């Protein structure tokens, strides 16, 4: 509910259309910085300003989830990162794993990276 609501708020503020998405942790960023959540989003129509979209999404999530806000303000996590997924990327990923996209759902929240590693 928090995730979906935050996403709806960002879409309303920076018009776009989300086809599919999933959120996964990035615990060991290549730059050696703080861990973060990566939002892998496939857009049917992209926002004009992806940076503004990501900022609004993060702020909306912080308002909805005080624990997440505390992790950000306490420098335990850095703000979320938006990772655009090419059109058809989720369907191709599911097909490559033998999943029927009509019967299988993309998980919205993951505790690991198995759903996003290899997602194009």
What would your notes on this structure say?
- The chain has helices at 2-13, 50-64, 66-73, 89-96; strands at 17-26, 36-45, 81-85.
- With 120 residues, it is of the alpha+beta class.
- The chain has one domain (2-96): GMP Synthetase, Chain A, domain 3 (2-Layer Sandwich), CATH 3.30.300.
- A three-stranded mixed sheet has the order 1-2-3, covered by helices on one side.
- Helix 1 runs antiparallel to helix 2 (50-64) and helix 2 packs across helix 3.
- The mean pLDDT is 92.
Q: Residue-averaged pLDDT, rounded? A: 92
Helix content: 25-40%
Question: How many strand segments?
Answer: 3
CATH topology, by name, is: GMP Synthetase, Chain A, domain 3
Sketch the major β-sheet. 3 strands, mixed
Order of helices and strands: HEEHHEH
Query: What share of the residues does DSSP label as strand, in percent?
Result: 15-25%
Helix/sheet category? alpha+beta
Architecture per CATH nomenclature, i.e. the level-2 architecture? 2-Layer Sandwich
The first-level CATH class name:
Alpha Beta
Number of domains: 1
In DSSP terms (H or I, runs of 4 or more residues), the helix count works out at: 4
Q: Shape from CA axes? A: globular
Cα Rg: 14 Å
Low-confidence stretches: none
Q: What is the spatial order of strands in the main beta sheet? A: 1-2-3
Taking the alpha carbons of the first and last residues, their distance comes to 26 Å
